[in-house]
Design a protein that fits this description.
By secondary structure, this protein is of the alpha/beta class. The chain is built from 8 helices and 12 strands. Helix 1 crosses helix 7 (253-267) and helix 3 packs across helix 6 (227-242). The relative contact order is 0.22.
């Protein structure tokens, strides 16, 4: 337990699978509530249905093979955070949302991410994964790669040298949002089926690179871990590492209304998705 952090009480929300637009709109709605001092610090655990390709806020839409995405029945959404593309499928997604004055979220992006990574590390240790923290980028030019999980960055969490958790953060006046993806099982190289390559040989080579550089929980443990088991580990791990007491909760009526507005005005709107 991080004894230097004061004891805190946070809300935890377990959500059923939502569409990509709904998931991003809910995170945005909670962030808005925090900025207005109406929402408590929140750990949200969620999933996606159908599978969804999410793009970083500034990532070019030209990275995406829209026809292939449609053929697979996958959706697409643009996140409010930076980073590269993630295919949200067979995973646990988390978001941490709170005030920049909250002791676990103070400082800049790197400082607060390092602090939150203590919770991530402990959660994965509870799942019996021998994880480590990445020190430095894996290669030059990693930011040019369209795939988030192909390039570990400073302080990201790895398993046997492979990236295991992909996270991104947005800091705004009065609010901090960090969300991330933990692949539980399945083929980590599937994301290449939704991206643009000059030919199928390049696509296959890219998929092989992702499999070499990224991991799933199943690959690390040799068994399949379901969403509920991983979610329980996250609540326990964040609580132990960051000295948090979690109280189960749901969205408030104001947050629900804001989520509907954010979905309509931004995350389900083509003008937002196609903005870059």
């Amino acid at each position: 337990m991080r004894n230097d952090l004061p004891r805190a009480q946070w809300r935890v929300i377990h959500h059923p699978p939502f569409t990509g637009a709904r998931n991003m709109a809910v995170d945005e709605a909670i962030l808005e509530g925090v900025q207005e001092e109406k929402s408590p610090p929140t750990l949200r655990l969620y999933d996606w249905q159908p599978a969804c390709l999410s793009l970083g806020i500034a990532q070019s839409l030209t990275d995406v093979d829209v026809d292939a995405l449609t053929a697979h029945g996958w959706e697409m959404v643009r996140r409010p955070t930076g980073g590269r593309a993630i295919l949200h499928i067979d995973e646990l997604t988390y978001s941490v949302i709170g005030s920049p004055d909250e002791p676990r979220l103070t400082g800049g992006v790197l400082e607060s991410y390092y602090r939150l990574s203590q919770g991530l590390m402990r959660s994965l240790e509870i799942l019996a994964l021998p994880v480590q923290r990445q020190n430095g980028r894996s290669e030059n030019g990693a930011d040019l790669n369209p795939i988030c999980f192909e390039a570990p960055s400073d302080n990201e969490i790895t398993l046997d040298g492979k990236k295991l958790v992909g996270s991104a953060q947005a800091r705004r006046k009065g609010g901090v949002l960090q969300h991330g993806s933990l692949p539980l099982y399945g083929d980590i190289g599937r994301i290449t089926q939704a991206l643009v390559y000059d030919n199928e040989e390049e696509r296959a080579a890219a998929a092989d690179r992702v499999r070499l550089r990224a991991a799933t929980v199943e690959a690390g443990l040799g068994r399949r871990v379901e969403w509920a088991e991983a979610a329980d580990a996250f609540v326990l791990g964040f609580g132990e590492a960051l000295n948090i007491k979690f109280i189960a909760g749901e969205l408030t009526a104001e947050e629900e209304k804001a989520a509907e507005r954010w979905s309509e005005e931004r995350y389900a709107a083509p003008r937002w998705t196609e903005r870059a």
